[in-house]
Design brief:
This protein has 2 domains: about 210 residues, Rossmann fold (3-Layer(aba) Sandwich), CATH 3.40.50.620; about 90 residues, Orthogonal Bundle (Tyrosyl-Transfer RNA Synthetase). Helix content is about 55%, strand content about 10%. The chain is built from 13 helices and 5 strands. The strands form 2 sheets. It has a 3-stranded parallel beta sheet. It has a two-stranded parallel sheet with strand order 4-5. Helix 4 packs parallel to helix 13, helix 7 packs across helix 8 and helix 10 packs across helix 11. Bound molecules: tryptophan (TRP). Tryptophan (TRP) binds next to strand 1, helix 7 and strand 4. One of its GO terms (biological process) is tryptophanyl-tRNA aminoacylation.
Amino acid sequence: MAQPRILSGIQTTGNMHLGNYLGAIRNWVELQESHDCFLFMADLHAITVPHDPKLLAENTLKIAATYIACGIDPDNSTIFVQSQLPEHSELAWIFNCITPLGWLERMIQFKEKAVKQGENVSMGLMDYPVLQAADILLYEPDLVPVGEDQKQHLELTRDIAARLNFQFGSEENPVLKIPEALIREAGARVMSLTDGTKKMSKSDPSDQSRIDLIDPPEVITKKIKRAKTDPERGLEFDNPQRPECNNLLGLYQLLSNQSKTAVAAECQDMGWGQFKPLLAETTVAALAPIQAKYNELMSDRTYLQQVLANGKEKAQAVATPTLQKVKAAMGFVQ
Ligand code: TRP
Protein backbone atom coordinates (compact mmCIF):
# COMPACT_ATOMS: atom_id res chain seq x y z
CA MET A 1 0.00 0.00 0.00
CA ALA A 2 1.16 3.53 -0.71
CA GLN A 3 2.41 5.44 2.31
CA PRO A 4 0.46 8.50 3.46
CA ARG A 5 1.87 11.65 1.91
CA ILE A 6 3.30 14.60 3.77
CA LEU A 7 4.15 18.05 2.48
CA SER A 8 5.95 20.86 4.26
CA GLY A 9 8.39 23.67 3.60
CA ILE A 10 10.45 26.44 5.13
CA GLN A 11 10.78 29.97 3.85
CA THR A 12 14.29 30.72 2.57
CA THR A 13 15.01 33.77 4.68
CA GLY A 14 17.97 33.84 7.06
CA ASN A 15 19.90 31.06 8.76
CA MET A 16 18.29 27.93 10.11
CA HIS A 17 18.32 27.71 13.88
CA LEU A 18 17.68 25.18 16.63
CA GLY A 19 13.96 25.98 16.55
CA ASN A 20 13.73 24.97 12.88
CA TYR A 21 15.62 21.76 13.58
CA LEU A 22 13.93 20.61 16.77
CA GLY A 23 10.51 21.98 15.89
CA ALA A 24 10.30 20.97 12.23
CA ILE A 25 13.07 19.13 10.42
CA ARG A 26 13.67 16.54 13.13
CA ASN A 27 10.01 15.54 12.99
CA TRP A 28 10.19 15.17 9.23
CA VAL A 29 13.21 12.90 9.61
CA GLU A 30 11.11 10.62 11.77
CA LEU A 31 8.03 10.87 9.53
CA GLN A 32 9.95 9.94 6.39
CA GLU A 33 10.26 6.36 7.70
CA SER A 34 6.54 5.81 7.35
CA HIS A 35 5.43 8.58 4.95
CA ASP A 36 6.06 9.73 1.42
CA CYS A 37 7.55 13.19 2.11
CA PHE A 38 7.58 16.24 -0.14
CA LEU A 39 9.77 18.94 1.41
CA PHE A 40 10.55 22.19 -0.27
CA MET A 41 12.29 25.54 0.00
CA ALA A 42 9.74 28.37 -0.14
CA ASP A 43 11.78 30.92 -2.09
CA LEU A 44 8.74 32.58 -3.67
CA HIS A 45 7.54 33.29 -0.15
CA ALA A 46 10.95 34.80 0.66
CA ILE A 47 10.33 37.66 -1.78
CA THR A 48 7.08 38.77 -0.14
CA VAL A 49 9.26 41.13 1.90
CA PRO A 50 12.23 43.08 0.46
CA HIS A 51 15.08 40.66 -0.29
CA ASP A 52 18.69 40.73 -1.51
CA PRO A 53 19.05 39.06 -4.94
CA LYS A 54 22.67 38.21 -4.13
CA LEU A 55 21.54 35.98 -1.26
CA LEU A 56 18.37 34.33 -2.57
CA ALA A 57 19.93 31.35 -4.37
CA GLU A 58 22.52 30.81 -1.65
CA ASN A 59 19.82 30.77 1.03
CA THR A 60 17.85 28.18 -0.93
CA LEU A 61 20.89 25.91 -1.27
CA LYS A 62 21.72 26.37 2.42
CA ILE A 63 18.28 25.14 3.42
CA ALA A 64 18.49 22.17 1.07
CA ALA A 65 21.89 21.30 2.58
CA THR A 66 20.43 21.69 6.07
CA TYR A 67 17.55 19.31 5.32
CA ILE A 68 19.97 16.64 4.15
CA ALA A 69 22.52 17.30 6.92
CA CYS A 70 19.76 16.88 9.52
CA GLY A 71 18.82 13.49 8.11
CA ILE A 72 16.32 13.95 5.30
CA ASP A 73 17.24 11.26 2.80
CA PRO A 74 16.98 12.54 -0.78
CA ASP A 75 16.59 8.98 -2.05
CA ASN A 76 13.52 8.55 0.09
CA SER A 77 11.99 12.05 0.33
CA THR A 78 11.42 14.58 -2.44
CA ILE A 79 13.36 17.81 -1.84
CA PHE A 80 12.60 20.63 -4.25
CA VAL A 81 12.64 24.38 -4.88
CA GLN A 82 9.26 26.10 -5.04
CA SER A 83 10.26 28.61 -7.76
CA GLN A 84 11.43 25.81 -10.06
CA LEU A 85 7.84 24.62 -10.45
CA PRO A 86 5.66 27.21 -12.21
CA GLU A 87 2.65 25.12 -11.09
CA HIS A 88 2.84 26.82 -7.68
CA SER A 89 2.42 30.34 -9.06
CA GLU A 90 -0.17 29.29 -11.59
CA LEU A 91 -2.39 27.54 -9.08
CA ALA A 92 -1.95 30.48 -6.70
CA TRP A 93 -3.35 32.77 -9.40
CA ILE A 94 -6.34 30.53 -9.91
CA PHE A 95 -6.94 30.41 -6.15
CA ASN A 96 -6.67 34.21 -6.05
CA CYS A 97 -9.74 34.39 -8.20
CA ILE A 98 -11.88 32.27 -5.91
CA THR A 99 -10.62 33.52 -2.54
CA PRO A 100 -12.63 36.33 -0.93
CA LEU A 101 -10.45 39.27 0.04
CA GLY A 102 -11.96 39.24 3.51
CA TRP A 103 -10.41 35.84 4.22
CA LEU A 104 -6.94 37.30 3.70
CA GLU A 105 -7.58 40.49 5.62
CA ARG A 106 -8.19 38.33 8.67
CA MET A 107 -4.81 36.58 8.61
CA ILE A 108 -2.95 37.28 11.84
CA GLN A 109 0.50 36.77 10.34
CA PHE A 110 -0.25 39.24 7.57
CA LYS A 111 -1.36 41.85 10.06
CA GLU A 112 1.76 41.34 12.16
CA LYS A 113 4.14 41.40 9.22
CA ALA A 114 2.38 44.36 7.59
CA VAL A 115 2.95 46.45 10.70
CA LYS A 116 6.68 45.72 10.49
CA GLN A 117 6.82 46.66 6.79
CA GLY A 118 5.27 50.08 7.30
CA GLU A 119 4.61 51.74 3.94
CA ASN A 120 6.16 48.90 2.03
CA VAL A 121 3.48 46.21 2.20
CA SER A 122 3.37 44.32 -1.08
CA MET A 123 0.37 42.59 -2.64
CA GLY A 124 2.52 39.45 -2.34
CA LEU A 125 2.63 39.71 1.43
CA MET A 126 -1.12 39.66 1.57
CA ASP A 127 -1.25 36.84 -0.95
CA TYR A 128 1.28 34.75 0.97
CA PRO A 129 -1.31 32.29 2.36
CA VAL A 130 -2.89 31.74 -1.07
CA LEU A 131 0.49 30.71 -2.48
CA GLN A 132 0.89 28.48 0.56
CA ALA A 133 -2.48 26.87 -0.22
CA ALA A 134 -1.25 26.18 -3.77
CA ASP A 135 2.02 24.70 -2.39
CA ILE A 136 0.00 22.28 -0.34
CA LEU A 137 -2.97 21.36 -2.52
CA LEU A 138 -0.84 20.64 -5.61
CA TYR A 139 0.57 17.57 -3.86
CA GLU A 140 -2.69 16.25 -2.40
CA PRO A 141 -0.99 15.41 0.90
CA ASP A 142 -2.69 13.57 3.74
CA LEU A 143 -0.88 15.59 6.39
CA VAL A 144 0.87 18.94 6.59
CA PRO A 145 3.21 19.16 9.59
CA VAL A 146 3.57 22.79 10.68
CA GLY A 147 4.05 24.86 13.80
CA GLU A 148 1.24 26.38 15.81
CA ASP A 149 1.77 29.73 14.06
CA GLN A 150 0.72 28.21 10.70
CA LYS A 151 -2.61 26.86 11.93
CA GLN A 152 -4.62 29.70 10.44
CA HIS A 153 -2.89 29.29 7.06
CA LEU A 154 -3.79 25.60 7.08
CA GLU A 155 -7.42 26.39 7.83
CA LEU A 156 -7.44 28.86 4.94
CA THR A 157 -5.95 26.16 2.69
CA ARG A 158 -8.75 23.79 3.61
CA ASP A 159 -11.34 26.53 3.05
CA ILE A 160 -9.95 27.32 -0.40
CA ALA A 161 -10.02 23.63 -1.36
CA ALA A 162 -13.58 23.24 -0.11
CA ARG A 163 -14.71 26.33 -1.96
CA LEU A 164 -13.14 25.19 -5.22
CA ASN A 165 -14.70 21.76 -4.79
CA PHE A 166 -18.07 23.33 -4.09
CA GLN A 167 -17.94 25.67 -7.08
CA PHE A 168 -16.34 23.39 -9.65
CA GLY A 169 -16.65 19.84 -8.43
CA SER A 170 -19.33 17.61 -7.05
CA GLU A 171 -19.68 15.82 -3.76
CA GLU A 172 -18.95 12.44 -5.34
CA ASN A 173 -16.14 13.91 -7.38
CA PRO A 174 -14.17 16.55 -5.47
CA VAL A 175 -11.47 18.33 -7.48
CA LEU A 176 -8.99 18.74 -4.62
CA LYS A 177 -8.17 16.57 -1.66
CA ILE A 178 -8.55 18.37 1.67
CA PRO A 179 -5.48 17.76 3.87
CA GLU A 180 -5.20 17.61 7.65
CA ALA A 181 -2.81 19.83 9.59
CA LEU A 182 -0.34 18.06 11.84
CA ILE A 183 0.28 20.74 14.43
CA ARG A 184 3.31 20.01 16.51
CA GLU A 185 2.83 19.86 20.25
CA ALA A 186 3.69 22.93 22.25
CA GLY A 187 6.54 21.15 24.06
CA ALA A 188 8.57 21.04 20.89
CA ARG A 189 8.39 24.79 20.56
CA VAL A 190 11.84 26.27 21.04
CA MET A 191 11.83 29.69 22.66
CA SER A 192 14.23 32.65 22.45
CA LEU A 193 17.36 32.59 24.63
CA THR A 194 16.72 36.19 25.65
CA ASP A 195 13.00 35.84 26.43
CA GLY A 196 11.46 32.48 27.31
CA THR A 197 8.00 33.68 26.36
CA LYS A 198 8.89 34.42 22.70
CA LYS A 199 9.49 31.92 19.93
CA MET A 200 13.07 31.47 18.69
CA SER A 201 12.89 33.29 15.38
CA LYS A 202 14.98 34.16 12.34
CA SER A 203 13.58 37.66 12.40
CA ASP A 204 14.56 38.50 15.98
CA PRO A 205 17.05 41.38 15.66
CA SER A 206 19.23 39.89 18.40
CA ASP A 207 21.63 37.12 17.35
CA GLN A 208 21.93 36.18 21.00
CA SER A 209 18.27 35.13 21.00
CA ARG A 210 18.88 32.03 18.85
CA ILE A 211 21.41 29.30 18.13
CA ASP A 212 22.00 28.89 14.42
CA LEU A 213 22.64 25.34 13.29
CA ILE A 214 25.98 26.43 11.85
CA ASP A 215 27.19 28.43 14.86
CA PRO A 216 30.72 27.29 15.83
CA PRO A 217 31.14 25.61 19.26
CA GLU A 218 32.57 28.75 20.94
CA VAL A 219 29.60 30.80 19.79
CA ILE A 220 27.10 28.20 20.99
CA THR A 221 28.82 28.02 24.37
CA LYS A 222 28.86 31.80 24.71
CA LYS A 223 25.19 32.16 23.74
CA ILE A 224 24.13 29.55 26.27
CA LYS A 225 26.31 31.13 28.95
CA ARG A 226 24.59 34.47 28.35
CA ALA A 227 21.08 33.04 28.01
CA LYS A 228 18.52 34.67 30.28
CA THR A 229 17.79 32.72 33.48
CA ASP A 230 16.37 33.43 36.92
CA PRO A 231 17.93 33.59 40.37
CA GLU A 232 16.33 30.38 41.64
CA ARG A 233 18.18 27.19 42.49
CA GLY A 234 16.94 23.83 41.34
CA LEU A 235 15.60 23.46 37.81
CA GLU A 236 12.08 22.43 36.82
CA PHE A 237 9.77 22.06 33.83
CA ASP A 238 6.41 23.76 33.41
CA ASN A 239 6.62 26.46 36.04
CA PRO A 240 4.83 29.42 34.39
CA GLN A 241 6.93 31.80 36.49
CA ARG A 242 10.09 30.32 34.92
CA PRO A 243 9.67 30.22 31.12
CA GLU A 244 13.43 30.36 30.49
CA CYS A 245 14.01 27.42 32.80
CA ASN A 246 11.39 25.37 30.99
CA ASN A 247 12.87 26.26 27.60
CA LEU A 248 16.49 25.43 28.48
CA LEU A 249 15.51 22.16 30.12
CA GLY A 250 13.41 21.33 27.08
CA LEU A 251 16.37 22.00 24.80
CA TYR A 252 18.54 19.73 26.91
CA GLN A 253 15.89 17.02 26.83
CA LEU A 254 15.54 17.12 23.03
CA LEU A 255 19.25 17.40 22.29
CA SER A 256 20.25 14.62 24.69
CA ASN A 257 17.36 12.39 23.55
CA GLN A 258 16.15 11.72 27.06
CA SER A 259 12.70 11.55 28.56
CA LYS A 260 11.28 14.52 30.37
CA THR A 261 11.16 12.60 33.64
CA ALA A 262 14.81 11.63 33.36
CA VAL A 263 15.84 15.24 32.72
CA ALA A 264 13.62 16.55 35.52
CA ALA A 265 15.27 14.12 37.94
CA GLU A 266 18.78 14.81 36.72
CA CYS A 267 18.46 18.59 36.95
CA GLN A 268 16.19 19.13 39.96
CA ASP A 269 19.06 20.07 42.30
CA MET A 270 21.28 21.84 39.78
CA GLY A 271 22.11 25.52 39.69
CA TRP A 272 22.63 27.40 36.43
CA GLY A 273 26.41 27.31 36.87
CA GLN A 274 26.30 23.55 36.62
CA PHE A 275 23.51 23.23 34.05
CA LYS A 276 24.67 25.72 31.42
CA PRO A 277 28.02 24.03 30.66
CA LEU A 278 26.15 20.71 30.43
CA LEU A 279 23.64 22.16 27.96
CA ALA A 280 26.42 23.81 25.93
CA GLU A 281 28.37 20.58 25.71
CA THR A 282 25.26 18.62 24.74
CA THR A 283 24.29 21.16 22.05
CA VAL A 284 27.77 21.25 20.54
CA ALA A 285 27.92 17.45 20.45
CA ALA A 286 24.43 17.13 18.91
CA LEU A 287 25.19 19.67 16.19
CA ALA A 288 28.72 18.44 15.33
CA PRO A 289 27.68 15.69 12.88
CA ILE A 290 25.06 17.98 11.29
CA GLN A 291 27.65 20.72 10.79
CA ALA A 292 30.19 18.31 9.30
CA LYS A 293 27.64 16.99 6.80
CA TYR A 294 26.42 20.51 6.02
CA ASN A 295 29.94 21.75 5.25
CA GLU A 296 30.57 18.77 3.03
CA LEU A 297 27.35 19.40 1.08
CA MET A 298 27.97 23.12 0.69
CA SER A 299 31.43 22.46 -0.71
CA ASP A 300 30.04 20.11 -3.39
CA ARG A 301 27.31 22.03 -5.18
CA THR A 302 27.04 19.53 -8.02
CA TYR A 303 25.57 16.93 -5.67
CA LEU A 304 23.08 19.43 -4.21
CA GLN A 305 22.08 20.61 -7.68
CA GLN A 306 21.52 17.00 -8.69
CA VAL A 307 19.29 16.40 -5.67
CA LEU A 308 17.22 19.47 -6.55
CA ALA A 309 16.94 18.46 -10.21
CA ASN A 310 15.67 15.00 -9.20
CA GLY A 311 13.35 16.59 -6.65
CA LYS A 312 11.92 18.92 -9.25
CA GLU A 313 11.14 16.03 -11.54
CA LYS A 314 9.48 13.95 -8.81
CA ALA A 315 7.49 16.97 -7.58
CA GLN A 316 6.36 17.89 -11.07
CA ALA A 317 5.06 14.36 -11.67
CA VAL A 318 2.53 15.04 -8.90
CA ALA A 319 1.94 18.78 -9.28
CA THR A 320 1.30 18.94 -13.04
CA PRO A 321 -1.63 16.50 -13.09
CA THR A 322 -3.25 18.25 -10.10
CA LEU A 323 -3.05 21.62 -11.84
CA GLN A 324 -4.46 20.08 -15.03
CA LYS A 325 -7.35 18.62 -13.06
CA VAL A 326 -8.17 22.05 -11.59
CA LYS A 327 -7.95 23.77 -14.96
CA ALA A 328 -10.18 21.17 -16.55
CA ALA A 329 -12.76 21.51 -13.78
CA MET A 330 -12.76 25.28 -14.21
CA GLY A 331 -13.31 25.01 -17.93
CA PHE A 332 -10.00 26.13 -19.42
CA VAL A 333 -9.29 25.12 -22.99
CA GLN A 334 -7.64 21.66 -23.01
N1 TRP B 1 4.63 29.64 5.81
C1 TRP B 1 5.53 28.59 6.19
C2 TRP B 1 6.46 29.11 7.30
O1 TRP B 1 6.69 30.28 7.40
C3 TRP B 1 6.36 28.12 5.03
C4 TRP B 1 5.51 27.48 4.00
C5 TRP B 1 5.24 27.93 2.74
C6 TRP B 1 4.82 26.23 4.13
N2 TRP B 1 4.46 27.08 2.07
C7 TRP B 1 4.16 26.01 2.90
C8 TRP B 1 4.72 25.30 5.17
C9 TRP B 1 3.38 24.88 2.70
C10 TRP B 1 3.92 24.16 4.97
C11 TRP B 1 3.26 23.96 3.74
O2 TRP B 1 6.98 28.31 8.04
